[in-house]
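Reviewers of the previous submission asked for a worked example of the structure-prediction workflow described in the proposal, so we include one complete record here. The input consisted solely of the amino acid sequence. No template or homolog information was supplied to the procedure at any stage.
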Amino acid sequence: MNMSGLRSSAGKCLQLTKNGIRSSSSSSTMSSDARPVLYSYFASSCSWRVRIALGLKDIPYDIRPTNLIKPDETYCYTNEYREINPMQQVPALKIDGQTLCDSVVIMHYLDETRPQNPLLPQDPLKRAKVREIVEIICSGIQPLQNRIVLEHLGKEASMAWAQHWISRGFRGLEGVLATSSSKYCVGDEISMADCCLVPQVFNARRYKVNLDAFPKIVELDQRLAANEIFLACHPHRQPDCPAKLANK
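From that input alone, the workflow returned the following structure tokens.
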């Protein structure tokens, strides 16, 4: 499977490779005007889901790094960006003359409008299982440990809170994966569920969750982490990743 091309907001052509994102002078087969534009923050697991989905579908796109952490330095908190995404969060994807602002909505839209390399299985039960796993992660785990929640709790309480809710969610997820998974989360084909799993496991490690009780989650994450598209979309291989973390 070919990797997708990117452009930075400054217009420099960027190419996804096995080693991440590098500058390239090669031209794309799709004009810059036709390319989707992804507003993304390197450490955002929601942005990461969409980067993976775009890569799996081999869709070239421009990327606009959008910092979430420093209000005085970031486009995210401007009135201009509020018009793009009223929640002032990432991701946002400009595509087909419209803007979509939720990672799951974006993945479904990509699958419905660009059917190559589908993110959902054809089998109705497998399709339902993919959606079940997506909902467990995207509704039952990640929102409870999201940055804005942890900032509201304060530094002293945030780590224990994140560990509690991720561990609780992983206990349920491990049980679902025990019956749905084979090579990947649902059967032997990469799906939308896998796009969501890997970023959430990264978050679990970030918050020092003990993963010993979740062998299936760890197994799947390790297998997916070796995939060239997942590697290229990793936070530490993004153009806005701090130098001290890049390619680590």
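The chain is about 45% helix and 10% strand. We consider this example representative of the routine output the project will generate in years two and three.
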